[in-house]
Protein 1
Amino acid sequence: MTFVTRSLVSAGLLVALGLPAVAQTEVKIGYALAPDSHYGVAAKKFEEVVKAETGDAFDFKHFPSSGLGGEREVIEGLQIGTIEATIVSSGTLANFVPETGVFDIPFLFNGFDHARAVLDGEIGQDILAKFDNVGLHGLAWGEQGFRHITNNRNAIHTPADVAGLKLRTMENPVHLAAFNAMGAAPTPMAWPEVVSSLQQGVIDGQENPLSVIVSVKLNEVQKYLTLSGHVYSPAMLLVSKPFWDGLDDAQKAAFEKAATEAAAEMRGYVDNVETTGVETLKERGMEVNALSAEEKAAFQESIAAAYEGYYDTYGQDLVDSIVNFK
Ligand code: PAF
């Protein structure tokens, strides 16, 4: 039975019993990637848990693969209340809550446990709470993984290998500063334009975690993959503040539970693709190299000037407290 038929039958039963049919509240959820990506599986889990907790009070409509536009446009839709929910990268989040940008600093986290502990701890939760001041409500931090560079020009081992490389970055000033300091030619671009720009040679490369490279099949438009792990890429499950304010306490608790489970689902997907993704991409024909510890150190040194800017913007104490977080 389809969803519509089921709804009609249950509405019919209620009417037959002399009870009013309960209207479902629509939840449009938009995200940049496909239903079988880390965002897609998280969105599915989110819906399942909300429905299980609220007895089908909400009718989810999914808009995967940037069906509602780029991440910035979707977040703006949440602010004005035309879209209810999204799962987004941190790409444009600092344009809404500037403090979020601190997590976009390259070489900040030493691994997944470190990043997850910071996001789930006081520092991450304080920043999540700030979204309430800008027409949004942050429900949970998810993640994409550590970002790596793909391109069509050459394998990358040293900063000299990225010199002048036309590399698409997210519309994110923290990333932009780092790639400028490295000597690349970074081009900020909204995600929906990226694959066609790579195809047409408008840009040489891009950077994203394995979760994205594998699920989007970037191997079809990129030859080289360098496992640079230069920056951790958080994601966030966000809802519209006008929508959130319209929920009762039990519904809010249901959405919170659903977001926690959706974030866990997303991290589980990332854990899996981190172990299988490189092999998959090699099988699909990509030339893969991993930066050695020394090579990575050279990239870290190359962005020393950008780090001075990060300290000015976010405060060295905060950056150090994240780096040294135990
Ligand atoms: O590179 C980006 O813009 C993001 O990582 C993406 C692919 C849209 C996922 O949020």
Note: The chain has one domain: 3-323.
Protein 2
Amino acid sequence: MKPVQHITVLGATGSIGTSTLDVLRRHPQQFSVFALSAATQVDALLAQCLEFAPRYAVMSSAAHAQQLAQRLREHSSPTQVLQEADALEQIAAHPEVDTVMGAIVGAAGLAPCLAAARAGKRLLLANKEALVVGGALFMQAVQDNGCTLIPIDSEHSAIFQCLPEDASTWGQRLHSVILTASGGPFRQRDPHTLAQVTVAEACKHPNFSMGRKISVDSATMMNKALEVIEARWLFHLQPEQIRVVIHPEQIIHSMVQMRDSSVLAQLGTPDMRVPIACGLSWPERIASGVAPLDFTQLAGLSFEEADAQRFPGLHLSWQALRAPEGTTAILNAANEIAVAAFLEERLRFDRIHAVNLATLEQLIPDEKPASVPALMALDAQARQVAQTMVQRWSL
Ligand code: NAD
Ligand code: MG
């Protein structure tokens, strides 16, 4: 029998975090939860701690941490709440941890994911923004420290599953990758009405229930733009080797085209527990709890090109990848600010792209960010510029 794997789930209360715990719950002999983290959801994290009894729990503010610690004491729980400033890095890099699920949303996940990479963990990466911001630096840390990086984003998991296990052969065999996109809730909406989009409309994804930020990113297709950048790093690709096609049924999760024009695809019911189970057990396979595809019930698979007028943000990814390094971090920061402003009803939906574009035009990195503090400084600068743009267009 294999030794039990000890797991830290960063962002345990979110959509990916709860799906991860759902898979772990099915395999108590194989996995043990070592630590859980959340930003502010005390009740949700408390319930998870009582069920999984991790050694440590971490929350984003001292006030929330104290509340959680108090509630855990009332339940005589053995879980200890860590409150140091670097608590997330501690639970990601702890010597007793084998695997880290990176399921925090946004650039906030960079430091703990990087800590896991530097400690040579098996890192299951859902937090695409960490890679979009960290770029070359992140991949260098993975390589230098023997980290096993496994993508959880469904498109990248699909590509990963289609590629040979020996990554050193990818370069010779691979021609390009084709990322599939659902097209989100506005695939067929008149682009002239995008100014009137409400928060509820943008957060209503046709096939998935996801966190609010990624839901808005799916509606603008900035999610796909971030995924293009993510694919560039994960699979060592040139920007022109990455293509995007809209596939509304979300049955094919992405494809790889080999040099001989053979195309391999990964298919399945659209449910994030599949890539999560795949990442947890790779290269073995375990049950995910997801119903298999019934091909006799599929009405058909369709494909279409992404309309640049409806989804102007998609092309910013290739533009940012060809620009000086650090530009992708600027794009990510601008988008986080713009999406947050939209969710707070301070910015029109169609202005998200305007903020991203204006920030990219105003801020050009003068040198390659060579350290995490340099990246974070660029991220902070981009947030400031983006905030000014939000104020200019504020509702
Ligand atoms: P979510 O908003 O549902 O959950 C985010 C989690 O991170 C929560 O536990 C929250 O408490 C925590 N968190 C938020 N901000 C934080 C901060 N500043 N510091 C520390 N913790 C913080 O998000 P999600 O939909 O689960 O997405 C998580 C990541 O996975 C994102 O990067 C997203 O792009 C990616 N992803 C999600 C899906 C999906 O289906 N939801 C699919 C593919 C990739
Ligand atoms: Mg995805």
Note: Residues 372-392 form the longest helix (21 residues).
Protein 3
Amino acid sequence: MTITKSGYVAIVGRPNVGKSTLINTLLGEKVSIISPKPQTTRWQILGIQTVKKAQIIYIDTPGIHEAEKRAINRYMNRVASSVIEDADVILFLVDGKTWQKEDELVLKKLKAAKGPVILVVNKIDLFTDKKMLLPVIDKLKNKFEFESIIPISALEAENTKELEKEIIKLLPEGEQLYPEDQLTDKSVRFQIAEIIREKLIRLTEEELPYTTTVEIENFQEEEKLVRINALIWVERPGQKIIVIGKKGAKLKKVGIQARHEIEKLVDKKVFLQLWVKVKENWTDDQKSLKTFGYE
Ligand code: GDP
Ligand code: MG
């Protein structure tokens, strides 16, 4: 089948509105990590969807943060701004139940958009009476010159096909940019680091801030086995203790859960070794950000 339309679609919105969930629903596969806690998506995750005659390349953006005091937050905001500016279509995702100050901040960033902006009102499954959605949409529609307004539930895949149709309608003419079966352009190494980080965040719950990062130090593929050494960087010795847990129990659990998922990804047995290291204030240090590949 020949592709006649293609382009980049940015999914923007404050943390927790459901951006990662939407990408996963649209693609039907797990390409971006989801967590009930905000701020787990730091990189631009690229999801690629080839439907009929169109190829849609979704870009997930890091949360647009209120506080720009820390270098990492400033960096994430810059990434989000450039994504908005360069995208062919922009999806502005909001939570139908709550409009917050951070939504207002994202709204301001939309002014940089060159492409059409679709307002996507998410989590409509939380409205038992769908009529209650009307005043919500009424209020939102005057905030910006939206190309269209589409209420959805990313979680229950409600109305997401309609959204897809609207996106395709707005995509520019273009040829196929990626192979049909490709879902993400992220390297296996990157995906492995994200899997480990996701397990870590889930298993440490509120105890660990999002300042943790995972570095794949060694990745060695053998015939039937992949050997991986990963470093978990934390900011303080206290966080190292949390990650390791009593007699190493927490770290062991992270390792087991991550290994299972990595084995599915690489389709081989995995030997995974995790190390925890302390790097004081790395999120506030421009130089460190560079060494971790943020620039
Ligand atoms: P992100 O920070 O914008 O990427 O948000 P996530 O995709 O990580 O979702 C944040 C939380 O909202 C998670 O607990 C999701 O399960 C939840 N969520 C996402 N979409 C929906 C939805 O359509 N309905 C409901 N009820 N919850 C949702
Ligand atoms: Mg996310």
Note: The beta strands are 5-12, 46-51, 54-60, 89-95, 117-122, 148-151, 213-221, 225-234, 269-278.
Protein 4
Amino acid sequence: MSVLIRGGRVITAADDYVADLFVENETITLIGESLDLQADRVIDAAGKYVLPGCVDPHTHLDMPFGGTVTIDDVESGQTAAAFGGTTCHVDFVIQGQGQTFAAALDGWRAKAAGKQVIDMGYHMAVTDLDEGGTLEELATLPDQGVTSYKLFMAYKGALMVDDETLFRTMEVAAKTGALVMVHAENGDVIAVLVEQALAAGHTEPKYHALTRPPEAEGEATNRAIQLARLAGAPLYVVHVTCKEAVEPIALAREKGWDVWGETCTQYFFNSLDDIAKPNFEGAKYVYSPPVRDKSNHDVLWNAVRTDALSVISTDHCAFLFDGQKTLGKDDFSKIPNGGPGLENRLQMIHEFGVRAGRISLNRMVELLATNPAKLFGLYPRKGTIAVGSDADLVVFDPARTVTISAASHHSKADYNLYEGTTVTGTPELVLLRGNVLVENGTLVASPGIGRFVPRARFGDELKPARP
Ligand code: URP
Ligand code: ZN
Ligand code: ZN
């Protein structure tokens, strides 16, 4: 199967030019001007952007959490991703208590079997080194293409690990070439604040944010950075929300340490005003770390502009408002934490990042595709447009205006964090390894087309040239 994409404006992290792309056997084989070639499928991309398929390194599909299971399984979550121009994601396998890493991985693979719409990889979330997986077993995961370990420093009594587990995992990562990812919030302190709030009769959703203050995120971020430094492991801080966490990451990066940070789409837009909405509406905005005061929106835009933060992910962790979020109707601490977002990342960052003049088109591609691919061992197969790369491509119409709504999105979530937002610029055609996934507003490929992608060990593509 060959595909010729004619006359699009090709945008990568580094370049911006008009060209034809020729795709054979799922990869890009030629890039040039006015290519005189026959193809099974010819796509006219004149007036459109041609972007690399976006890579989302932070998703939770079909995950048991907060007394329920995330509403999007691999098929619905990846369908939402495809419509939004994301062609590869890395999902979190969560090691159960007493479970080996092999058993945890098998469980996640079984959930994906036959359902994959886009390509995917796995991170391993380490929760139990006492009775479950061993350090020796953890060390074997990179050989299976699972090259990142995730640790939760919050969610006491559920996913949270102590500093010993964190540090021992970091030591393994330093040896095996895996990247350590942390959810950085001080879970012990949060547990005390939650207990105090409930004892005072504070049950509404807004107390979720008030019991998880920015200082708890800043402290844990600092701690993780120092421990990673001590262990000699590279560190990636997920879903950074505030100045208190951006500052230590920026400082570490200035010093040339192997520290990277990610934020998520929702943290640029949602705020304490949302979580305080009446009639339990605020529960839609209960995720962790929580929404912050609006002053942090500019902090985050500035951080992604200056590379203090290097990735924008979604942390897609969708629950129904009706029936799942309502588990916490009388107690904010029982509201399942998480929100939907896989479909709208590119639209929202294009509209409010690029069109609003905050970041360039190249930087958008870098944040949504190239940097996640580089950090997570997928580059240059994913995350760019180059000869030899997978033909994961988005033909993006920069002039088409759409209004985001739960009524038209593809997640099973019954609400959208950006409901009613109008954006100009949206994916028109999405290809996975040269196969058309989405066309004319329809999913045209069948589930099963997506593959597991073994990822390379943490490389040095993103390490700055140092004097
Ligand atoms: O609230 C969130 N973010 N839910 C997903 C789990 C996590 O902490 O990433
Ligand atoms: Zn988290
Ligand atoms: Zn997450």
Note: The chain has twelve helices and 19 strands.
